[in-house]
Protein backbone atom coordinates (compact mmCIF):
# COMPACT_ATOMS: atom_id res chain seq x y z
CA UNK A 1 0.00 0.00 0.00
CA UNK A 2 2.76 2.42 0.98
CA UNK A 3 4.57 1.59 -2.23
CA UNK A 4 1.51 2.39 -4.28
CA UNK A 5 0.98 5.66 -2.42
CA UNK A 6 4.60 6.59 -3.09
CA UNK A 7 4.38 5.60 -6.75
CA UNK A 8 1.24 7.69 -7.20
CA UNK A 9 2.79 10.61 -5.35
CA UNK A 10 5.90 10.43 -7.52
CA UNK A 11 3.89 10.44 -10.71
CA UNK A 12 1.81 13.37 -9.53
CA UNK A 13 4.41 15.54 -7.86
CA UNK A 14 7.86 14.89 -9.26
CA UNK A 15 8.23 16.55 -12.64
CA UNK A 16 10.04 14.69 -15.37
CA UNK A 17 11.97 16.50 -18.05
CA UNK A 18 9.78 16.74 -21.14
CA UNK A 19 12.92 16.58 -23.27
CA UNK A 20 14.74 13.53 -21.90
CA UNK A 21 12.52 12.00 -19.19
CA UNK A 22 14.91 12.57 -16.28
CA UNK A 23 13.09 13.32 -13.02
CA UNK A 24 13.58 16.59 -11.18
CA UNK A 25 12.61 19.32 -13.64
CA UNK A 26 10.04 20.06 -16.34
CA UNK A 27 12.88 20.83 -18.75
CA UNK A 28 16.24 19.95 -17.29
CA UNK A 29 19.49 21.91 -17.30
CA UNK A 30 21.17 19.36 -19.60
CA UNK A 31 18.42 19.79 -22.20
CA UNK A 32 18.52 23.57 -21.76
CA UNK A 33 22.26 23.51 -22.40
CA UNK A 34 21.62 21.82 -25.77
CA UNK A 35 19.67 24.87 -26.95
CA UNK A 36 21.62 27.26 -29.11
CA UNK A 37 19.98 30.67 -29.42
CA UNK A 38 19.33 31.89 -32.95
CA UNK A 39 17.61 34.68 -34.83
CA UNK A 40 14.91 34.64 -37.47
CA UNK A 41 15.65 36.94 -40.42
CA UNK A 42 12.99 39.55 -41.22
CA UNK A 43 11.80 43.09 -40.53
CA UNK A 44 11.17 42.44 -36.86
CA UNK A 45 14.04 41.18 -34.71
CA UNK A 46 13.03 37.67 -33.58
CA UNK A 47 15.23 35.83 -31.14
CA UNK A 48 14.76 32.12 -30.43
CA UNK A 49 16.16 30.23 -27.47
CA UNK A 50 16.86 27.28 -29.75
CA UNK A 51 15.99 25.45 -32.93
CA UNK A 52 12.64 23.66 -33.01
CA UNK A 53 14.23 20.23 -32.80
CA UNK A 54 15.31 17.55 -30.35
CA UNK A 55 14.38 17.81 -26.67
CA UNK A 56 13.17 21.40 -27.08
CA UNK A 57 10.68 20.38 -29.77
CA UNK A 58 9.42 17.54 -27.58
CA UNK A 59 9.03 19.86 -24.60
CA UNK A 60 7.12 22.48 -26.61
CA UNK A 61 4.82 19.82 -28.01
CA UNK A 62 4.01 18.58 -24.51
CA UNK A 63 3.56 22.13 -23.30
CA UNK A 64 1.11 22.94 -26.12
CA UNK A 65 -0.74 19.70 -26.60
CA UNK A 66 -0.02 17.56 -23.56
CA UNK A 67 -1.41 19.88 -20.90
CA UNK A 68 1.98 20.20 -19.15
CA UNK A 69 1.64 23.80 -18.13
CA UNK A 70 4.40 23.32 -15.55
CA UNK A 71 6.81 23.68 -18.47
CA UNK A 72 6.01 27.40 -18.70
CA UNK A 73 8.52 28.39 -16.06
CA UNK A 74 11.47 26.36 -17.41
CA UNK A 75 10.80 27.31 -21.03
CA UNK A 76 10.12 30.90 -19.94
CA UNK A 77 13.49 30.99 -18.19
CA UNK A 78 15.16 30.24 -21.55
CA UNK A 79 13.38 33.26 -23.01
CA UNK A 80 14.19 35.41 -19.99
CA UNK A 81 17.89 34.71 -20.59
CA UNK A 82 17.63 36.07 -24.12
CA UNK A 83 15.69 39.12 -22.96
CA UNK A 84 18.20 39.76 -20.17
CA UNK A 85 21.08 39.46 -22.64
CA UNK A 86 19.51 42.11 -24.87
CA UNK A 87 18.74 44.39 -21.91
CA UNK A 88 22.37 44.10 -20.81
CA UNK A 89 23.43 45.22 -24.28
CA UNK A 90 21.31 48.33 -24.03
CA UNK A 91 18.30 47.19 -26.05
CA UNK A 92 15.21 49.10 -24.91
CA UNK A 93 12.37 46.91 -23.66
CA UNK A 94 9.55 48.41 -21.59
CA UNK A 95 6.97 45.63 -21.56
CA UNK A 96 6.44 41.95 -22.27
CA UNK A 97 3.41 41.18 -24.45
CA UNK A 98 2.18 37.67 -25.26
CA UNK A 99 1.06 36.69 -28.77
CA UNK A 100 -2.18 35.10 -27.62
CA UNK A 101 -4.27 32.22 -28.86
CA UNK A 102 -7.84 32.87 -29.91
CA UNK A 103 -10.06 32.75 -26.82
CA UNK A 104 -11.92 29.66 -27.97
CA UNK A 105 -8.69 27.76 -28.50
CA UNK A 106 -7.28 28.86 -25.16
CA UNK A 107 -10.53 27.75 -23.54
CA UNK A 108 -10.39 24.29 -25.08
CA UNK A 109 -6.73 23.91 -24.08
CA UNK A 110 -7.31 25.29 -20.59
CA UNK A 111 -4.53 27.85 -20.86
CA UNK A 112 -2.78 30.19 -23.28
CA UNK A 113 0.81 29.05 -23.58
CA UNK A 114 2.19 32.40 -24.82
CA UNK A 115 0.64 34.22 -21.87
CA UNK A 116 2.13 31.71 -19.43
CA UNK A 117 5.55 32.12 -21.07
CA UNK A 118 5.30 35.91 -21.10
CA UNK A 119 4.32 35.89 -17.45
CA UNK A 120 7.40 33.78 -16.62
CA UNK A 121 9.61 36.17 -18.61
CA UNK A 122 8.11 39.20 -16.86
CA UNK A 123 8.58 37.78 -13.38
CA UNK A 124 12.18 36.73 -14.09
CA UNK A 125 13.24 40.00 -15.71
CA UNK A 126 11.17 42.41 -13.63
CA UNK A 127 9.60 43.85 -16.80
CA UNK A 128 5.87 44.59 -16.71
CA UNK A 129 3.50 42.13 -18.40
CA UNK A 130 0.92 43.69 -20.72
CA UNK A 131 -1.75 41.33 -22.00
CA UNK A 132 -3.16 43.78 -24.53
CA UNK A 133 -3.27 41.93 -27.84
CA UNK A 134 -6.21 39.79 -28.78
CA UNK A 135 -6.45 37.22 -31.55
CA UNK A 136 -9.64 38.05 -33.36
CA UNK A 137 -9.49 35.53 -36.16
CA UNK A 138 -9.52 31.90 -35.33
CA UNK A 139 -7.75 30.68 -38.47
CA UNK A 140 -6.91 27.09 -39.18
CA UNK A 141 -4.21 25.57 -36.98
CA UNK A 142 -0.89 26.64 -38.51
CA UNK A 143 0.44 23.13 -38.23
CA UNK A 144 -2.00 22.00 -40.96
CA UNK A 145 -0.81 24.56 -43.49
CA UNK A 146 2.17 24.95 -45.78
CA UNK A 147 4.37 28.05 -45.55
CA UNK A 148 2.53 30.26 -48.06
CA UNK A 149 -0.82 29.37 -46.54
CA UNK A 150 0.53 30.13 -43.06
CA UNK A 151 1.36 33.68 -44.06
CA UNK A 152 -2.12 34.18 -45.53
CA UNK A 153 -3.76 32.56 -42.53
CA UNK A 154 -2.71 35.19 -40.01
CA UNK A 155 -3.21 38.52 -41.85
CA UNK A 156 -5.24 40.82 -39.65
CA UNK A 157 -5.51 38.19 -36.94
CA UNK A 158 -4.76 40.49 -33.98
CA UNK A 159 -6.01 43.72 -32.50
CA UNK A 160 -4.54 45.74 -29.68
CA UNK A 161 -6.39 47.86 -27.20
CA UNK A 162 -6.12 51.49 -28.43
CA UNK A 163 -3.11 53.35 -26.98
CA UNK A 164 -2.48 50.48 -24.52
CA UNK A 165 1.16 50.23 -25.61
CA UNK A 166 1.69 53.94 -26.17
CA UNK A 167 5.40 54.84 -26.56
CA UNK A 168 6.50 51.46 -25.24
CA UNK A 169 9.32 49.34 -26.59
CA UNK A 170 7.59 46.00 -26.73
CA UNK A 171 8.94 42.45 -26.47
CA UNK A 172 6.44 40.01 -27.97
CA UNK A 173 6.56 36.46 -26.60
CA UNK A 174 5.41 33.28 -28.35
CA UNK A 175 6.30 29.60 -28.32
CA UNK A 176 7.40 28.91 -31.91
CA UNK A 177 8.12 31.07 -34.94
CA UNK A 178 8.20 29.51 -38.40
CA UNK A 179 7.96 32.20 -41.08
CA UNK A 180 7.57 35.10 -38.69
CA UNK A 181 4.16 35.83 -40.26
CA UNK A 182 2.29 35.55 -36.96
CA UNK A 183 4.90 37.74 -35.24
CA UNK A 184 4.69 40.34 -38.03
CA UNK A 185 0.93 40.43 -37.66
CA UNK A 186 1.07 40.77 -33.88
CA UNK A 187 3.75 43.46 -34.29
CA UNK A 188 1.46 45.45 -36.59
CA UNK A 189 -1.27 45.28 -33.94
CA UNK A 190 1.20 46.36 -31.25
CA UNK A 191 2.25 49.36 -33.38
CA UNK A 192 -1.40 50.23 -33.95
CA UNK A 193 -1.78 50.19 -30.16
CA UNK A 194 1.01 52.77 -29.93
CA UNK A 195 4.21 50.73 -29.48
CA UNK A 196 7.30 52.68 -30.53
CA UNK A 197 9.32 49.57 -31.27
CA UNK A 198 8.67 45.85 -31.43
CA UNK A 199 10.94 42.83 -31.15
CA UNK A 200 10.06 39.24 -30.40
CA UNK A 201 11.29 36.30 -28.36
CA UNK A 202 10.22 32.74 -29.06
CA UNK A 203 11.19 29.50 -27.39
CA UNK A 204 12.02 27.88 -30.70
CA UNK A 205 12.59 28.83 -34.31
CA UNK A 206 11.43 26.35 -36.94
CA UNK A 207 14.18 26.10 -39.54
ZN1 LIG B 1 16.16 16.85 -20.04
Tell me what you see in this structure.
- With 207 residues, the chain is α/β, with parallel strands linked by helices.
- The chain has a single domain, classed as Rossmann fold.
- The chain is 42% helix and 18% strand.
- It has eight helices and seven strands; from the N terminus they run ααββααβααβαββαβ.
- The protein has helices at 2-13, 29-33, 54-65, 71-88, 103-109, 113-125, 147-154, 181-192, and strands at 38-40, 46-51, 95-98, 133-135, 158-160, 169-177, 197-205.
- The strands form two sheets. The chain has a five-stranded mixed sheet, sandwiched between helices. Strands 4-5 form a two-stranded antiparallel sheet.
- Helix 8 (181-192) links the parallel strand 6 and strand 7 (197-205).
- Helix 4 (71-88) packs across helix 6 (113-125).
- The chain is globular, with a radius of gyration of 17 Å.
- The model has no long low-confidence stretch (mean pLDDT 88).
- The structure holds zinc ion.
- The site of zinc ion has 8 residues, from helix 2.
